[in-house]
Structures are given as C-alpha cells and as structure tokens.
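W.,

You were right to be curious about this one. When I first looked at the sequence I had no strong expectations either way, so I just let the prediction run and decided to look at it fresh. Below is the sequence, 80 residues in total, followed by the output.
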Amino acid sequence: MSRDPVLRFTDSAGNGYVGLDVVDAENLAELLGVVLDVLCSLAHYENLADYLPARLDRITDELADHLCLVRHFLRPQEEQ
C-alpha cells in the first residue's frame, strides 16, 4: 500500500469519503476476494457457522457487496 496521505473529502450532504489510488484499490479488491473465497469454502464455512450462525451469512453478503463496489470503481471509465 502507498505511504502517501489518503485523500479525504466531504460532499455537500456531509457524507465523508476516503480516496484510494488505483494500486491500493486493486490490492484491496484482491484481499477482499481472497477473504471471501476462504469464508465461503465449504470446510471453513461449516466451521465458522458453528461460531457465528446468525452473522456469517450477513458477513459474507456484506463482504461480497464491498468487493463488488471496489471492482466497480476499478472498471475502466469507458465501461461505466
């Protein structure tokens, strides 16, 4: 990851945002994908379901949503 300061900004509605450079966003997408793959693998999922039965589906759904969002931002401009 880059050691440069991260761009932070607020929109007119008061929502705060943090900007990432493309390399950091690509690394984040790769990391989220690996974590999602591990969590969703059958052996790990069954073991985790014993400890987090009510939350595991929500956790994996939220992780998949975040990964989709990061991948969306990484798509070339002409595809969007």
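Here's what jumped out at me. Residues 22-40 form the longest helix (19 residues). And, maybe more interesting for your project: Residues 21-75 form one domain.

Coffee later to discuss?

I.
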